[in-house]
Every structure is written in C-alpha cells, then in structure tokens.
Design the sequence.
C-alpha cells in the first residue's frame, strides 16, 4: 500500500464478517482547523428517520463495533457509526488530536450530516467522552434526544486509579512498541472480550490496522487519556465531567460489562451519580468490548422504543412496616432466637425502643434515606432490630442470601453496590477477603485489632448508644425504595429485585390474609424470605435452630423445639426443609408431637411441593391444614391451594397451584410452536403460555437490569414470570415449568413438570427431570431420574425401569419418551435445594446420548 493510500480514507474491503458494504460512506467535512478531512462511517440511511443514533467507538476498535446496531435498526431509525479521524478507515492526518479537538471534529461532521431532527449519542470506551461532548453540543441546540454509554468514564473516582492496562501502556519506552510498532494493543483489546470472538470477527477488527502508519492513531488515543493534572486534555475532560449536570434531565442508558478489567464498576457508579435518572443494565460476565460481548444493539433498540414511564403508585394507606411493633402489647414476646442450645428473646416493647434507637444512631453516623445497607446477620433478634431500624430510617435493605455461595454473593453485592455493610464478624472477614463494598458496622463483639484489620468503623451497640434518647428520623414516605432482594439464581445469574415500601406493605397484608393471621397466632419461620415478617404482622415469631440458607438442615426435633418455644400456631417451611422433617419424624418425643400438634396451619413455598410430602408433613403436625402458596421473589403470593385441592385437581398441565389471591390478576401469553410467548394475554381455559401477573405487591423493578425489567414488564403494569402455565375452567392456575425449559418437539411445545410428575409416580423414581435433546422444533423427550437405589454413576436406565417411565408418561400426557437415564443425584439450586437445573441436565443427557464420555452430572 502506498504512503498516500495508507493515509487516505478508504471503504473497507469486501468480505469482513457481518459488515454490509452498502453501509459504508466516505464524507468530507472541515475539521476544527477548517481543513477538509474525510471520514469513513457506516450509515443505515433509512429514507425518513424519526431519530438518528450517532455511535462513537473507542480504542483500538472502529465503527465495526456497532455493526449489529446498524444492521438491526428499524426503517424509521437512522444509525450512523463513525470511524474517528486517524482510526478505522477514516483519513490519517498525522495530527495529534486531543479530546477537545475530537469533540469539535465530530460535532462539525454531525451538523453537516444530520442538520435537523433529534439525535441520540452512543459511546464506548474513549468514544464515551467524545460522544458526551457531541451530546452537550446537540443539547445546546435543542436536538439531543438521549445518551447511551457503555464501559467508559469521564472521571477517575476516588480510590480508583487509572486503568492498569492504560497506565502500563503509557510507561516510558512502552507506548509506541505496544500500540503502533506492533499489533499488541489490538490483540490485547480483543483478548478482553468475553467470550472470545470468532476468528473472522477478530480479523474484522484488525483489518484497518495492518501497518504501523495506520496504527498511529491507536498510539495517539492512548496518549490522549489524562493521567495527571498537567495533561493537555485534562481541562477538556474536567469541563465535560462538570457539565454533565446539564444532561441530568436527558434520557440516558448505561450499559455495562461487569468483567471489564479496564473500566470497573466504580466508573459505572460515578456515571450514575452524574446521571441520576439514567436507566442501567449490567451484562453479567461481559468484558470490555460490551457491544461485542452482549446484545447491546437489542437493548438500545428496545430502549428507544420504551413506553412513557408509569406514574409512581399513590402512597399506601396500609400500616407502615414498623407500626404493628409499637401497637402490640409491649410485654408480649416479639422474636425468639434459637441456636447453639440457647434461647434469646425480645418483647415488642424492647423491639420498639431498639428500632428507634438504632434508626436514630444510624442517622447520626451518616446513614441517609436512600442509602443502601447490606445486612449480613443471621435471622434473629439483631437482624430484626437492624432491618426495621433501617426501614424506619428510609434506607434500602440489600438482602443477599448466603446460600448463594461466596462467588454469587460477591456478584450480588457488586450489583447492588451497598453504601454500608452491617454484619457479624464472619461477614466482616468475608467482606475484606472478597472486597465487598460498603462502610463496615459489626453486629456483635470484636476487638480493636480485628476491627482495624477488617476496616470496621463501628459496632452495632455503639450505633444504638448514639441514638439512645434521640427521636427517630422523620417517617419516610411509603413510595420510597425499601429493599433489594436477590433471586435464587437457579435459572441464571441472581437478580436484584427492588421493592418500595408500599409494595412490601401490600405483601404483608397478603400474607396476613392468606394465613388468616390473628393477634393470638405464633409463627415458626423456617422459610428465609418470611423469617422477618412476624413483627410486621404483629405476632410472635421464631426461626428454628437451622441454617435458613440451607433448608435441608431443619429436622423434626428442631422444628418441634421452635414450635414449643412460642406455642406455635403457624409453620412456614420450604419443601426441602419438610422433606428432612418428615424423614426424621421418628425421632420425635411425645412432648415434641404435642407441640407440633398445636399448629393449625402449615404453609410451604419456594418450589413445587409433592402432595405426598405435604400430606406427610401435615400429619406430623397433628393433621394441620396444609396450603402451598405459589409465587416468586418478584411477587409472593400469587395464588395458593390447599392440600385437599391439590389431591383432587385433575385435567391440567403440570401442578395445580390454586386460584389467584384476591387483588392478583393472572393471565397467560400463549406459546407459539417454538415455545416462545408474546401473543396477546388471555384468561381462556386450557391455553398454555407464559404466566403474567398484576398485583399491588409485584416488584418495583429489577435493580441495574433495565433491559431485563423492560422485557419482563409486559404489559407495562404486569410481570412476566418466566413460568409456563394455564388456567383451567374453574379459574385455577397450573404451572408446567419454566419458559426456558419448555421442550420444543416436532408435535409442538411440551412442558416438563407433568412429565416429571408422571415419572415420579413410578415406584423406584425419587425425582425426575424432563429435558429436550436435539434441535429446537425437533427435540425428543428424555427423562433423567434419581432412583431409590442410586447408581454409582449416570447412565442408561435398566430396561424395566425405562419401560415403566415411558408407560407412566404416555398414560398421563400421551408423550413419547425417547430415552430414560439415571443419575446418583440431580443438580438443584443452593437456596431451596428443590429447583432442578434442567439446562445442565439437558446438556449432560445430550452428550451422553451422542456417545460422549460418561462423566458425572
């Protein structure tokens, strides 16, 4: 390539993967020095666009980064993706263009190219600040319609040094060697992608940078990042950061790859503070090249079509969450804590006082309404006090179940980014080791040396003493955020579910109605999500001596001890907990049976419960009434059903979960032949589809998951549950499984739960998973079963057992089972020990049936 040609603007060669040559344009415009310069850009060029997206790449990429957005744009949306001067296929001018010059260059280009109409700016990496400069330019002219940013920065947050990779590249004698003289920087950037792009895509990114003189812009880009106050571009960057307040009312979307070693989440939080009304979506596991690693194009195109924001719900006229504490008999026991052979209790009067003191003390130490507070305290007296104190203060509880395990707990806390962390000593140690965010307050004794080593600022008793005698803060309105609770992660990364006060208050009233709770009831809470609702219900509660994050640790004796401690009338436990209670029931003494016999109602939720198990548990409790609510972290309860109703229910697809609760609307979005939903909602009997619910106690949103929330909120006031089900002629809801687990056979979609229930009716089958093997639309049904005589390793089931399973499934659902496999144990979720990981089972079954090696599941 001649020197002249190397410096000219060019159209990309044909054959670059995913790039349509028809998108390419060369445009000549005067730059900030009034010299004519030629840009290469990609342009979807619809005839009559209603809005234009201007996409700006970073280093060392080019407009290729935005090819999915250009190609996916609808006919009324124009997408322009530029190659910045000195980069991609644009002209090489041999000028060192600083940030201010690049902003002016781009602004002149867009003024010429898009002289009228609204514009949305889109930027990534060092293209983020440049696109924000364009955004301010357009905003001054009344033409800015929105801002989209992905893994970028305008400021180095306190305590966050400049990205290590950039600092390393800027070392003396290193810069030219890794950026222009060699392809190291290009290859290194592609290595930051998660997952690694295919070879043809990597070749596409490298295509414009085949020679050293075409890579000089890469070197200049790295050199232009201000790492100190004396840098020539520092004033322009500081001015940009300061002026972002001008964009506070402009719609904004922040899209973030969480595995980016260049721009970590401190940079995201800095942008959130500057754009407080921005929508945020974190792509868990995506790396630095966010538009390459995740479906950024899909998120952006959905965002520009989003419906207007719904008005906030009116303030609740229900009792506030802490009101029943002060209204109860002050001498009545509120919470009993069991563990380690000892018992601790607190009365409603003591609880009311401590909640007020801790709320006032937290306020005195700098905890503010709206601050996020992660609680890492086992259920019991201290957790109850701190939870209700924080609610009384108006701070937002971050509730992360330790049953998620250290890795997923860390992911959840990184997502929620709490301002404060209140926990026991073990949590303080874990927080230091795993670098959990938040200012530390320890609950319980801790020596000074340990506090210094773990970064603990205060102890809970010190906080309480600060608030002693001080009036609690002003009562927060019920429309404020109250909690972020994380899902179990059984069907993907755990999601933060955000609730406002009025939504939790509505949930409390649903629970009160569901259990017909009166003032004389006493509550055994062996189900983690409801372990703290006793005070809000105004009744005595106790958590059994168990690890509530591992339901299977509850045995019959522990349940009886808890019931005896409060003379319980209500028990709430998950199916996994009940299974172990029933299995250990023979160990109960006469006193234990008498204590359990006073229980009038057994509730079980968290996963589908086998009627035989529920019946056996109810019998152990002296034939207590047994009911099972249906719901999810996003809305519980949705429906409920009695054991007798479950036993007599017939004719549905899956398991009957009963009629919707009063105030809950349920409909389904019918499935198409590929097992997807999206058709208009219906309540017609017998139609199988995705279950959609509306209720006052549905979540407010998914936290920092705007796109997930957008897709789940359809219609806008409903919640798409991800469960597949149907309503029968009597208005009862049946659940057939999860949408992602629907089997797409040649005969149409098939739900797994009915097949699994039929398989489990075979004498030797303890638990079963129905999965589809093969291409979508032509899958065959495979049953993978745990059996009473568990095999040492997975494999084909004995012929007799396979025949029994096939016969049972055909009799129940008229579905052919292609193969039956057995395993020592099916993989289940950590929290409830009940939800089968069908995706993992399906992958394993496909590998086995394809002749793969016999590996453990």
Sequence:
């Amino acid at each position: 390539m001649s020197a002249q040609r190397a410096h000219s603007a060019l159209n990309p060669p044909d054959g670059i993967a995913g790039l349509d040559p028809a998108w390419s344009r060369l445009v000549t415009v005067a730059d900030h020095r009034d010299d004519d310069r030629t840009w290469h850009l990609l342009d979807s060029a619809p005839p009559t666009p209603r809005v234009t997206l201007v996409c700006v790449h970073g280093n060392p990429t080019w407009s290729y980064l935005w090819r999915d957005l250009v190609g996916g744009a609808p006919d009324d949306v124009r997408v322009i993706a530029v190659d910045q001067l000195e980069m991609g296929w644009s002209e090489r001018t041999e000028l060192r263009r600083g940030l201010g010059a690049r902003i002016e260059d781009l602004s002149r280009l867009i003024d010429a190219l898009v002289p009228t109409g609204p514009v949305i700016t889109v930027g990534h990496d060092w293209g983020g600040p440049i696109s924000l400069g364009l955004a301010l330019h357009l905003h001054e002219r009344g033409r800015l319609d929105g801002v989209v940013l992905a893994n970028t920065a305008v400021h180095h947050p306190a305590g966050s040094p400049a990205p290590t990779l950039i600092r390393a590249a800027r070392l003396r004698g290193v810069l030219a060697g890794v950026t222009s003289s060699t392809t190291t920087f290009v290859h290194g950037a592609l290595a930051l992608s998660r997952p690694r792009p295919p070879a043809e895509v990597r070749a596409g990114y490298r295509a414009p940078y085949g020679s050293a003189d075409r890579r000089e812009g890469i070197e200049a880009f790295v050199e232009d990042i201000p790492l100190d106050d004396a840098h020539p571009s520092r004033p322009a960057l500081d001015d940009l950061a300061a002026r972002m307040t001008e964009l506070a009312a402009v719609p904004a979307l922040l899209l973030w790859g969480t595995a980016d070693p260049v721009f970590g989440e401190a940079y995201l939080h800095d942008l959130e503070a500057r754009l407080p009304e921005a929508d945020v979506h974190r792509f868990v596991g995506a790396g630095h090249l966010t538009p390459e690693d995740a479906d950024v194009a899909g998120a952006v195109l959905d965002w520009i079509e989003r419906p207007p924001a719904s008005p906030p719900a009116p303030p609740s006229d229900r009792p506030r969450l802490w009101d029943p504490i002060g209204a109860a008999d002050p001498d009545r026991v509120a919470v009993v804590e069991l563990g380690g052979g000892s018992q601790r209790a607190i009365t409603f009067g003591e609880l009311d006082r401590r909640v007020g003191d801790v709320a006032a003390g937290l306020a005195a130490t700098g905890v503010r309404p709206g601050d996020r507070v992660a609680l890492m305290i086992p259920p019991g007296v201290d957790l109850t006090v701190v939870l209700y104190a924080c609610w009384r203060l108006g701070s937002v509880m971050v509730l992360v179940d330790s049953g998620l395990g250290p890795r997923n707990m860390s992911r959840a806390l990184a997502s929620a980014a709490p301002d404060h962390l209140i926990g026991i000593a073990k949590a303080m140690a874990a927080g230091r080791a795993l670098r959990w965010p938040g200012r530390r307050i320890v609950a319980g004794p801790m020596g000074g040396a340990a506090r210094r080593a773990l970064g603990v600022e205060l102890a809970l008793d010190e906080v309480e003493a600060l608030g002693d005698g001080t009036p609690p803060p002003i009562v927060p309105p019920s429309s404020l955020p109250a909690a972020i609770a994380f899902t179990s992660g059984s069907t993907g990364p755990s999601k933060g579910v955000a609730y406002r006060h009025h939504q939790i208050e509505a949930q409390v009233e649903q629970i009160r109605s569901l259990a017909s709770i009166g003032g004389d009831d006493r509550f055994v809470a062996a189900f983690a999500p409801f372990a703290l609702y006793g005070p809000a219900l105004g009744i005595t509660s106790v958590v059994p001596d168990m690890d509530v994050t591992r339901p299977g640790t509850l045995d019959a004796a522990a349940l009886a001890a808890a019931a005896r401690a409060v003379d319980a009338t209500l028990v709430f436990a998950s199916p996994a907990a009940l299974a172990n209670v029933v299995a250990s029931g023979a160990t109960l003494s006469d006193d234990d049976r008498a204590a359990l016999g006073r229980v009038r109602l057994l509730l079980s939720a968290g996963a589908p419960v086998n009627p035989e198990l529920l019946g056996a548990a109810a019998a152990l409790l002296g034939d207590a009434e047994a009911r099972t609510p249906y719901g999810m972290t996003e809305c519980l309860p949705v429906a409920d059903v009695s054991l007798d109703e479950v036993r007599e229910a017939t004719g549905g697809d899956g398991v009957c979960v009963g009629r919707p609760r009063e105030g809950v609307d349920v409909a389904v979005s019918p499935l198409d032949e590929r097992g997807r939903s999206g058709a208009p909602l219906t309540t017609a009997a017998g139609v199988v589809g995705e279950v959609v619910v509306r209720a006052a106690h549905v979540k407010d949103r998914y936290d920092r998951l705007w796109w997930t929330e957008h897709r789940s909120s359809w219609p806008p006031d409903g919640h798409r549950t991800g469960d597949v089900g149907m309503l029968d002629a009597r208005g009862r809801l049946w659940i057939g499984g999860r949408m992602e687990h629907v089997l797409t056979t040649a005969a149409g979609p098939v739900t797994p739960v009915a097949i699994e229930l039929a398989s489990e009716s075979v004498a030797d089958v303890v638990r079963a998973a129905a999965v589809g093997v093969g291409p979508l639309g032509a899958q065959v049904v495979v049953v993978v079963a745990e059996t009473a005589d568990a095999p040492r390793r997975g494999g084909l089931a004995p012929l007799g057992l396979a025949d029994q399973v096939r016969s049972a499934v055909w009799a129940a659902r008229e579905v052919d089972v292609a193969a039956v496999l057995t395993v020592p144990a099916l993989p289940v979720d950590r929290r409830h020990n009940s939800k089968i990981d069908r995706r993992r089972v399906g992958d394993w079954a496909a590998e086995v049936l394809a002749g793969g090696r016999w590996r453990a599941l």
